[in-house]
Write the structure tokens for this entry.
Amino acid sequence: MVNAGHGGYQHSLHPLASLRQNCGNPTVPTMSYITAPERFETSEFVLRCYLPGDGPALQDATNHSYEHLKTFMPWACDDQTSEEAEQLVRQFRGRWLLSQDFVVALFSRDESQLLGGGGFHLREGSLATKSAEIGMWIRASSAGQGVGTSFLNALIEWGFTAWPWERLSWRCDSRNLASIRIAEKAGMQAEGVLRSHKFAPSGERRDTSCFAILRDSKR
Ligand SMILES: CC(C)(COP(=O)(O)OP(=O)(O)OC[C@H]1O[C@@H](n2cnc3c(N)ncnc32)[C@H](O)[C@@H]1OP(=O)(O)O)[C@@H](O)C(=O)NCCC(=O)NCCS
């Protein structure tokens, strides 16, 4: 099953964990649950959580983008069924409501077409760190037209205005020049390269380029 945009969340927090007090160390913030924002609109797009019923839109976007996605997206395939996609969007919705992972759908203004996907993923630590990693893919028919750049800018703007994030990071295969370029254009700062960090979908080892932007200074 494809898991487009699935952040591989690392936290299985009990929903009531947020009600616990941090008795141990009052200087370390505790936050395990947020009432997450639902949507963000720009003049071009709607960014929102996937909802039940979005499965066919996800299936259409990813199946028709397989060649475009397969080099860097390990989940890419061209034979996802609409039932599988529907299961996924419902999982995304559930994780969003539980503050476990925030997979964002990028829709056209009239929400008739899914242009891509992304998210705020808790890969840097728990919610309490107020740090998230942004992930992204753009459907093949919309790629190379500035959509990824606008989507990343929108995620950063939304992330630093409506969300608790104080640090937003971006990691990509060092050979993914389009991904590196849009991070640079969004004002993210290069933080280094993790050498031989992961396996690419091809099975080759690959380096990871790291970028981030901070809320306070937008640096
Ligand atoms: C990477 C991706 C999100 C970028 O989105 P996009 O809509 O295609 O990007 P944009 O059109 O906004 O901008 C791409 C930029 O990269 C540049 N670029 C593209 N391919 C390039 C290459 N091979 N070498 C150098 N620059 C390249 C473009 O020229 C453009 O920069 P410019 O505006 O300065 O000319 C999209 O192509 C995608 O979905 N790729 C497959 C999945 C993926 O790699 N996701 C990222 C994982 S971190």
In short: The first strand starts at residue 39 and ends at 41. The pocket of coenzyme A is lined by residues 68-69, 72-73, 136-138, 143-149, 172, 176-179, 181-182 (CB under 6 Å). The chain has five helices and eight strands. Strands lie at 39-41, 45-49, 102-108, 114-121, 131-138, 167-173, 189-199, 205-214.
